[in-house]
């Protein structure tokens, strides 16, 4: 993730939090309370480079509500209010197993093989942080998004909510 952030900063020549704010979060109607920090003194020229994980003071911090908006963006194929905010191709690749680790896509854990959450629906995808205690769960088959912070048993949360939602798509 850190290498991806460095590469995108070099490619765009701009701060990734600015790009995310302008291209995705403002159009989604996200709050202004989120933040994304890099490590101290990590710059590419004058542009700060943010980190992927929230380690040693770096990383992204976002409310569950804003996180849920990102999950909804994945459900809509990257479209929001009639605009394509994120490439549909990127989203499709995000949920395609990688050759090295079949339960992982582009920054998403795929539950197809039930190795991530053995008892949760195989149709779900998870983005996790803070040692797995922060969760963004997206289940296209149920048209379902779950965003949770500081959960002790996120698999139980997924199972309870999924059981209450009728499967929509195959």
Quick rundown:
The protein has 170 residues and is of the alpha+beta class. It has helices at residues 2-12, 16-28, 64-75, 88-94, 154-164; strands spanning 35-44, 47-50, 59-61, 79-80, 83-84, 109-110, 125-129, 134-139, 144-148. It is globular, with a radius of gyration of 16 Å.
Low-confidence stretches: none
In round numbers, the mean pLDDT is: 89
Shape: globular
Rg over C-alpha atoms, rounded to the nearest angstrom:
16 Å
SS summary, helix count: 5
Q: What percentage of the residues does DSSP assign to strands (E)?
A: 15-25%
Sheet with most strands: 4 strands, antiparallel
Distance between the first and last residues' Cα = 31 Å
Secondary-structure content class: alpha+beta
What is the strand arrangement across the widest sheet?
A: 6-7-8-9
DSSP helix fraction: 25-40%
The arrangement of helices and strands along the chain is HHEEEHEEHEEEEH
Number of strands: 9
